[in-house]
Design goal:
The complex is a heterodimer. Chain A has helices at 18-29, 31-37, 68-80, 89-93, 106-114, 124-127, 141-154; strands at residues 6-12, 38-43, 58-62, 65-67, 83-87, 117-122, 132-134. By secondary structure, chain A is of the alpha/beta class. Chain A has one domain (6-154): Rossmann fold. In chain A, the strands form two sheets. In chain A, strands 2-1-3-5-7 form a five-stranded parallel β-sheet. Chain B is α+β, with helices and mostly antiparallel strands. Chain B has 13 helices and 15 strands. Chain B has helices at residues 45-49, 57-62, 69-84, 90-121, 134-155, 175-200, 237-243, 268-275, 281-287, 298-323, 374-392, 398-411, 416-419, and strands at residues 5-10, 20-27, 30-38, 164-165, 168-169, 213-217, 227-230, 233-235, 245-248, 255-258, 265-266, 330-331, 341-349, 352-360, 366-372. The chains are: A alpha/beta, B alpha+beta. At the A-B interface, helix 1 and helix 5 of A face helix 1, helix 4 and helix 5 of B.
Chain lengths: 156, 428
């Protein structure tokens, strides 16, 4: 019998994408394991198209939420994913991508209005229910590996 | 494309760093407007630097960009060192370069193998590589990993390195570690040679829209030092800003830049065109037949050559420290700050010239910061190239044209994570 593969997606919100750089290194170090266990549904860093929009077994999310568009996107991701994993400081605390929460001037107010931003930058955790979180700036490759293997062992 | 008005949109460009989209307006088979929209949500690091003490500023500004964090850290340190006339020892400079070469290998390998190679070989992504190309995935991951390991060994981590600060370089390396790193780096050469070959045979061609190139000119191609050359003129960090013009485009989250009203190009192609003589002998030999080049897609080939160069130079530096019996922490006292100062630095980030300036008060707090990234400076050049590409290929189907445009944008290796977040809107 062919082994069942899980669908996984990687989403980047407002961040430096440093956590995703380490996800790439994790992918490199565990490529065989990865191909045996997963099919990617969405990963803009490596693929142009997503086979289906949302609805994966595991959604891995980095970054903070700063625009209205992002807020509805993370809600869609949450609604459809079986498991949502928040990785990195921005996803869990909002910082350090939330600089503007502590600043106030004409430029920031103009920017917030013109580019349909939220009044304050928020973490993923503040706006949707998160199943697993992994702290770090950026996350460590080893910890991410442990977490993914724990999730699989526990069953989805 | 048919007659009359036509709009062409690519949402969320893939296989690049950060978020951007493209909108093209056509009228009667003429391109009226190309809008490359940076859609990163700004994080205001430049503004947040104001009021911060210079002591740990490099750690904060590192977070501007995951993939070029070392560039932001070194530009920060160099601007502060410039402000207070601080000296950096020869050994510390060598360690900085060693870390930086590791970062350059990882960053370029990611772009060359994972983002751009699918375009060259005709695949949608690395996951679809056929049997004859499967090895390239493994090799790409390996080159990327060894680069990351080098940056980690010297800098403490591959991303947002911890061992570098105004106090010096806090790294200890024994000869065993150095020898292992050297051997790993050496093992990359055959793969990188193969990669270079793929890029010498890549199928794309587009003439650079302007032949104005900018880079650091130096004698070791070390990315961190040298005099700035822009269109032949020699500039210094403190007058660089006066030499370029900028324009705010209200459809994008960032500025675009011009030199004497024209777009200019930064990055690997510019460096190879202007500074080829400074490459390692091995890299120079591989590059000589192909540069100077005005084919914009040769930016990829130039990056591949730079990977080889970075391997060669890393091994030279490792040999130097092997002779010295290893690396001990190079720590010094914090600088004495009791006067106002201004500091400027321009270094080569993986994607081209990165400008930093700080005004600092007499307590060491930043009162003004200015950061200009290479992707923002390449923006106008990218838009002009896209226009030219579309005009040359109006009869190509939309789907095919879309692929060609994406491959072109990818050849610039833009980093939109970096490109926004900084600059002030000019209030009139």
């Amino acid at each position: 019998m062919k082994k069942q593969k899980y669908t996984i997606s990687f989403y980047s919100f407002t961040s430096c994408e440093g956590c995703m750089m380490n996800v790439l290194l994790w992918l490199a170090q565990n490529y065989k394991f990865f191909r045996e266990n997963f099919v990617i549904n969405h990963m803009k860093l490596l693929m142009a198209d997503s086979p289906t929009k949302y609805g994966e077994d595991i959604a891995v999310v980095e970054g903070a939420v700063s625009s209205k568009k992002q807020l509805s996107e993370i809600k869609e991701i949450r609604k459809n994913a079986k498991i949502l994993v928040a990785i990195g400081s921005c996803a869990i605390t909002g910082a350090p991508s939330n600089n503007r929460n502590f600043l106030d001037d004409e430029e920031i107010r103009y920017y917030v209005k013109k580019f349909k931003q939220l009044e304050k930058v928020v973490s993923i955790k503040e706006v949707v229910n998160v199943d697993y979180e992994l702290m770090g700036c950026p996350i460590s490759v080893e910890s991410f590996n442990t977490l993914i293997k724990q999730i699989i062992e526990k069953g989805i | 494309m048919h007659k009359g008005h036509d709009v062409f949109v690519i949402k969320d460009l893939s296989k690049i760093e950060g978020h951007a989209s493209l909108e093209v307006k056509l009228k009667d088979r003429k391109v009226e407007k190309v809008m490359l929209k940076v859609e990163e949500n700004r994080r205001f690091y430049q503004k947040a630097a104001v009021g911060k003490n210079i002591i740990a500023l490099n750690q904060s500004l590192s977070r501007i960009c995951g993939t070029c964090s070392a560039a932001h850290q070194f530009a920060t340190l160099k601007a502060i060192e410039h402000a207070y006339g601080l000296k950096v020892s020869e050994d510390e400079v060598k360690l900085r370069k060693l870390l930086y070469y590791g970062n350059m290998i990882r960053d370029h390998a990611m772009h060359l193998y994972l983002f751009s190679l699918p375009d060259v070989l005709g695949y949608d992504s690395v996951f679809e590589f056929g049997k004859e190309h499967k090895d390239l995935v493994r090799e790409g991951f390996y080159v990327q990993q060894i680069g990351a390991n080098l940056a980690e060994m010297v800098g403490g981590r591959a991303i947002h390195q911890l061992n570098i600060s105004l106090r010096g370089f806090n790294t200890s390396l024994d000869t065993e570690k150095l020898a292992t790193a050297k051997q790993k780096l050496d093992s990359l050469k055959k793969y990188v040679k193969k990669l270079i070959k793929y890029y010498t045979k890549q199928p794309f061609y587009l003439d650079a829209v302007s032949e104005i190139y900018g880079c650091l000119k130096n004698d070791d191609f070390g990315f961190l030092e040298g005099t700035i050359r822009l269109n032949g003129a020699a500039l210094s960090p403190d007058n660089y800003l006066d030499s370029i013009e900028r324009e705010w485009k209200d459809y994008s989250h960032s500025y675009t830049y011009y030199y004497e009203g024209k777009p200019y190009l930064l990055g690997a192609l510019a460096r190879l065109n202007l500074n080829l003589e400074a490459l390692s002998t091995n890299a120079k030999n591989l590059a000589q037949n192909y540069f100077p080049s005005h084919n914009i897609y040769d930016n990829n080939l130039a990056q591949a050559i730079e990977v080889m160069h970075s391997i060669d130079r890393s091994i030279e530096i490792i040999n130097y420290f092997l002779d010295k019996g290893g690396v001990s922490p190079l720590m010094k006292d914090l600088p004495r700050i009791d006067k106002e100062a201004q500091g400027y630095a321009v270094i080569e980030a993986p994607r081209g010239l990165l400008y930093y300036s700080f005004h600092i008060d007499n307590e060491g707090k930043v009162t003004k910061a200015e950061i200009i990234t290479p992707t923002a400076q390449n923006h106008a050049h990218m838009e002009a190239s896209i226009k030219l590409l579309i005009e040359n290929n109006l009869d190509l189907g939309k789907e095919k044209l879309k692929q060609e445009i994406e491959a072109l944008i990818r050849a610039y290796d833009p980093c939109f994570s970096c490109a926004s977040h900084f600059l002030r809107i000019k209030w009139s």
